[in-house]
Amino acid sequence: MIRINENYLKLQASYLFSDIAKRVKAFQDAHPDKEIIRLGIGDVTQALPKACTDAFHAAVDEMAQDSTFRGYGPEQGYAFLREKIANEDFQARGADILPDEIFVSDGAKCDTGNIQEIFAGDIKIAIPDPVYPVYLDTNVMAGRTGTSKDGRFEGITYLDSTKANNFVPDVPKEKVDLIYLCFPNNPTGSTITKSQLKKWVEYARENKALILYDAAYEAFIQDSALPHSIYEIEGAKDVAIESRSFSKTAGFTGTRCAYTVVPKTCMAYDKSGNTHALHSLWNRRHTTKFNGVSYPVQRAAEAVYSSQGKVQVKSLISYYLKNAGLIRKELMALGFDCVGGDNSPYIWVDCKMDSWKFFDLMLDEAGVVCTPGVGFGRCGQGFIRISAFNNYSNVEKAMTKIRKVIG
Ligand code: MLT
């Protein structure tokens, strides 16, 4: 008899953003004439930078000639891209990351979801609340939790991110083995300072723990004092894995390209306490289950680091940050407390009522889709997340509609 992985039964019926998409579709079907503006899921709307599409086209042309055609590439990514990433994203910031410590992939979602496979089933996990649901759901699927009670899974150490701590959780009092951190944060848009991050690195070193650092929104950082990478913190190379993505940086949500850094000095332990390099384990997993990102997509990603690409990416980020600034200003003028939107594309709004009620109010009355904060965890109750990924004119229109409902 074929049996299921019963851990899946512990999960909510559908993934947060699929659930929201279903609700929006039902509303649209019931009100076909009503205009809907989507500020929910963080999906980009602006075209890829021209430097990327030019490189993409040229690489497709190479694939059309026998003499330049490429079949399977290296699973870890082509050297031309890994070298650019190492130089531009890390060494230029004083972080000593080498090209062969970088694993190119098809998404930070996939990497942050898959990486837990290389750890023991009974390790203790710490997860922020609110949190990007992938970190939690993939650990539930893997059987690292009990069941969910009052919106919390047994066996997880939740790191509350609230107004009281400016949405940056402190290190836990107890000992945990694997810690998920994301900065600039999804969903709250909060950022972490070097001294706060240093405390986490020290905690991980003292407790032989590992930090999974999701820096998918790093390109939105404007404040020059903020760290872009955890490897800017001394000692982090031994205790942290970092994921990044071209999705939000350069509009690759549909094109798919990201990477994860697993430094060769990053160790974990077996039952007897012997050390093992996580780089070898992840390499084994990656080469077994992944066949690499397509050559044209990697060439398009490489173009992000060209001089024209850098200028175009900067202008893309400024475009979304202008949206974010407008959303934040308008919501604050309506009397809502907001965080994020300055170094991040997300604005976290204290909506002063139940998150789903506010979501329904926005959808039904204003035709604006946002994301209910409670969908990211119990501490998100009473908040909503508004995404800045849309056209500026749509954002202006959405703000006018919200003003009419709330103002
Ligand atoms: C979000 O809206 O949180 C993101 O789009 C999710 C993702 O990047 O997978």
Low-confidence stretches are none
- Let me know the average pLDDT: 97
**Share of helix, binned:** 25-40%
Shape: globular
How do the SSEs run, as a string of H and E?
A: HEHHEHEHEEEEHEEHEEEHHHEEHEEEH
Biggest pleated sheet: 7 strands, mixed
What is the annotated CATH architecture of the largest domain? 3-Layer(aba) Sandwich
Structural class of the helices, strands and pairings? alpha/beta
- The CATH superfamily of the largest domain is identified as Type I PLP-dependent aspartate aminotransferase-like (Major domain)
What count of domains describes the coordinates?
2
Written overview of the protein:
Helices cover 37% and strands 15% of the residues. It is α/β, with parallel strands linked by helices and 407 residues long. The protein folds into 2 domains: 6-47 and 308-406, Alpha-Beta Complex (Aspartate Aminotransferase, domain 1); 53-306, Type I PLP-dependent aspartate aminotransferase-like (Major domain) (Aspartate Aminotransferase, domain 2, 3-Layer(aba) Sandwich), CATH 3.40.640. The strands form 5 sheets. Strands 2-10-9-8-7-3-6 form a 7-stranded mixed sheet, sandwiched between helices. It has a 4-stranded antiparallel sheet with strand order 13-14-17-16. α2 (50-63) runs antiparallel to α9 (295-302), α4 packs parallel to α5 and α11 packs across α12. The protein is globular, with a radius of gyration of 21 Å. The protein starts with 15 loop residues before the first helix and ends with a helix. The mean pLDDT is 97. It binds D-malate. D-malate (MLT) is lined by residues 41-43, 109, 132, 186.
